[in-house]
Write a structure and sequence with these properties.
Elements lengths: L5 E2 L7 H12 L8 E8 L4 H10 L10 E2 L6 H5 L8 E5 H9 L1 H4 L1 E10 L18 E3 L5 E6 L19 E6 L15 E4 H10 L1 E2 L2 E2 L1 H8 L18 H10 L12 E5 L2 H5 L7 H15 L2 E3 L9 E5 L13 H11 L6 E6 L9 E4 L13 E6 L7 E6 L10 E6 L9 E2 L4 E6 L5 E8 L9 E6 L15 E9 L8 E5 L16 E2 L41 E7 L4 E2 L24 E6 L7 E4 L6 E4 L2 H17 L6 H11 L9 H4 L17
Parallel strand pairs: 6-13, 7-12, 7-14, 8-12, 14-15, 15-27, 27-29
Antiparallel strand pairs: 1-21, 2-4, 2-5, 3-4, 8-9, 10-11, 16-25, 17-24, 17-26, 18-23, 18-25, 19-20, 19-24, 21-22, 22-23, 27-28, 30-31
Helix pairs in contact: 8-12, 10-11
Length: 684
């Protein structure tokens, strides 16, 4: 290998996708028959057109069997152009390779690569769902709450009715379960309707007590014959805790007016917290929820559709952070694509405020007018079993070519050749003896973002089975040289999230920027939650808001400590960046803050554990969010609106800010006093 610039194929959908496929092959998951989940952007063709073109491509071999369309996309949706915004599909490695070479012929503008899907999770024979599913009639004041998460123990008593054998969960999709027959046929895993859940509750209840282990085993949620972690078998599971806050009620309280739709994302997918690989599965979850939520009708008022509140308590660090990412665009589209009912979405602001994962670069000092160097010290940690990524996003430009040049110097090995914002450019990162352990790749602008991005991808620093091509830990120096940007242009840099979640086996270790001029603590030794005034450090706390939370319409929530009335130090801040041809950013930061910690010592708040009668504590903006989702559902049930503006206004009404009230970029309208309490008051 040489350290000179290389070029990819003449047409490449996404060079990062190409590199990820190569890394997967190197580290054990890139076999020819491997299935991936993908999110695609089609070029004015239908899904049926895509299959027809796949049949004719590949030298006459036909690739129609190498791509799988989820069965809940109806025949009408498959036949119509733009019926589904960014459809989520499954594809084999051979299809992805061909799509890279012949994207134009296939009619594909872009592919977002998710993660490998074990063949045993897929039902390739699933029949297409009929277009008109049976309607579900409900009483006035009913609101559907949908939760997308992982480890959702949906048999918990807080999700049941007065009759212990009757659940409020109408639909539950376990994406990584073993496929089995049932009333709901899904392309991946196993899904249950309320009648099946009720039947399993009755079959596993004796003397009024549910045998939860057997129940979840028969549901497919806990299956030890199936590989992977089983979060619902643990004392603490994130999804159960979140759904308890969003839609947990004592039996008899909201038996018929708060039906639940829950989607459990694959556990192996949620172990990778970067957010990049979750996009196709998340898109699929949104489609599933919308399909089944459409079935609900009021018994009165001519079968009017009822409101829907969606809670997704995941965050990420990556993406353009301007509201134009595919998931942000899909959420905004689904939120406002119908005028027949109200749909609201609640998202967390994120927990990366102090993570040192964001930098903002200007090449001219505002005080002196001098051109200053743009250099970032990127510290990659040892024992990191997943790849690490830095995304360098260009400002929106009519002419995006040759704006900057990027070089990277590894801890061991030569300085790379520069990579410019020119399509096809790439540079290999390697040791002195030409062992490749990373690449610099440029992704040209795509709709709807229209901003180029240079990605630095680095191999894991540890692997159980592979010893070659592992990247060295330590400081990787990233140099960004201005070529054609103006004094006011800003380059935004984000490190992808890469940590191991509590209770999960070791995978990632979060890398971070380790610049000497970043001030971490105040004069008393406490972490600084905001950027010091007058600091010229490139590494910022501002702009750390989750990449998922940059859309225009969802309600985005920060977290605060109840006893001190202070924002949690980890609670991420805005503003978001400005999109191409936009007059300004889509949002300034979160819309409001809700309680995420009882006290500075008793971190987190109490909600449902994985077993009935249990309560556990979790913290983060992901537990602030479902409390507000619950408030939104209550408002919608009363015939009121529950927009992000309503959330902000309620927070401003609830809050009595002291003189040191945090900036709007961190707190939005203020602190909502809408605490959901389970168990004892821990601050008493």
């Amino acid at each position: 290998m040489s350290d000179t610039n290389g070029t990819l194929d003449e047409f490449s959908i996404d060079p990062v996708t190409n590199w990820r496929l190569a890394v997967a092959a190197k580290f054990g998951s890139g076999e020819e028959d491997t299935w991936w989940d993908i999110l695609v952007e089609l070029d004015d063709i239908s899904l049926d057109d895509l299959i027809a073109r796949a049949k004719d491509i590949g030298g006459g071999n036909g690739l129609e069997d190498a791509v799988l369309i989820p069965n809940f996309y109806t025949a009408q949706q498959r036949a119509a152009k733009e019926a589904i915004l960014y459809p989520s599909l499954y594809a084999k490695d051979i299809f992805l390779q061909e799509a890279t070479r012949n994207a134009g012929q296939l009619g594909i503008k872009r592919i977002i690569l998710g993660t490998v899907v074990p063949v045993g999770q897929l039902d390739t024979s699933a029949q297409i769902m009929p277009g008109n599913l049976p309607e579900i009639f409900v009483e006035d004041g009913t609101v559907v709450t949908a939760v997308i998460d992982n480890g959702i123990a949906f048999g918990h008593e807080l999700f049941r009715k007065t009759d212990p054998n009757a659940s409020r969960v109408s639909f539950a999709w376990i994406m990584d379960a073993k496929p089995r027959t049932g009333s709901l046929v899904v392309p991946q895993g196993h899904a249950l309707a309320r009648s099946e859940i009720d039947g399993l509750l009755a079959a596993n209840t004796a003397s009024g007590l549910l045998d939860e282990n057997r129940f979840y085993s028969q549901c497919g949620l806990i299956d030890y014959s199936w590989p992977g972690l089983k979060p619902a078998a643990m004392r603490v599971s994130h999804g159960t805790h979140v759904m308890g806050l969003a839609a947990g009620y004592q039996p008899g309280t909201k038996d018929n007016t708060r039906p639940i739709i829950c989607v459990q994302l694959p556990t192996d997918l949620t172990m990778d917290v970067s957010g990049a690989q979750i996009l196709p599965a998340l898109g699929r979850a949104i489609d599933f929820i919308k399909i089944h939520a459409e079935r609900y009708r009021l018994e009165t008022d001519h079968g009017k559709r009822i409101p829907l509140v969606v809670n997704f308590s995941f965050g990420n660090f990556a993406g353009p952070h301007d509201g134009t990412g595919l998931i942000e665009a899909k959420i905004d589209h689904e939120l406002h694509s119908t005028t027949q009912r109200e749909i609201q979405v609640a998202l967390p602001a994120g927990n990366g405020n102090l993570a040192r994962t964001h930098a903002e670069i200007t090449f001219t000092d505002e005080d002196t007018g001098n051109v200053r160097p743009a250099s970032l010290d990127w510290r990659i940690q040892p024992d990191d079993r997943s790849a690490s990524y830095v995304e360098i996003w260009m400002p929106p430009k009519e002419n995006p070519d040759n704006l900057v040049r990027v070089r990277v110097t590894p801890p061991v090995g030569p300085r790379s050749t520069p990579v410019s914002t020119v399509p096809g450019e790439t540079a290999i990162l390697h040791s002195g003896d030409n062992v490749e352990f990373g690449r610099i790749l440029y992704t040209p602008p795509h709709a709807p973002t229209w901003r180029g991005c240079i990605v630095v991808g680095v191999h894991p620093t540890f692997h159980h089975d592979v010893t070659d091509d592992l990247a060295p830990s330590g400081v990787w120096k990233i140099e960004i040289e201005n070529v054609a940007l103006t004094e006011t242009d800003r380059v935004q840099v984000w490190i992808r999230r890469d940590e191991t979640l509590p209770g999960f086996p070791a995978l990632g270790r979060q890398s971070y920027f380790d610049n000497d001029d970043y001030q971490r603590f105040d004069s008393f030794g406490a972490p600084l939650p905001i950027d010091p005034p007058g600091s010229d450090c490139l590494v910022k706390r501002s702009g750390t808001i989750s990449g998922f939370a940059c859309g225009e319409f969802p309600a985005v929530l920060a977290g605060y400590v109840e006893t001190r009335n202070d924002l949690a130090g980890y609670s991420a801040a805005g503003p978001v960046t400005t999109a191409f041809n936009a007059t300004g950013p889509t949002r300034n930061g979160p819309d409001a803050a809700a309680v995420s910690d009882d006290t500075p010592v008793l971190r987190g708040i109490l909600s449902a554990g994985s077993r009935c009668g249990s309560l556990v504590s979790l913290d983060g903006t992901s537990v602030a969010t479902p409390q507000v989702a619950r408030w939104m559902a209550d408002r919608l049930a009363q015939g009121q609106t529950a927009t992000k503006g309503d959330v902000s206004a309620q927070a401003a009404f609830d809050d009595h800010p002291p003189p040191s009230r945090p900036a709007n970029t961190r707190i939005g309208g203020g602190r909502m006093q809408r605490r959901i309490r389970f168990g004892p008051d821990r601050k008493a």
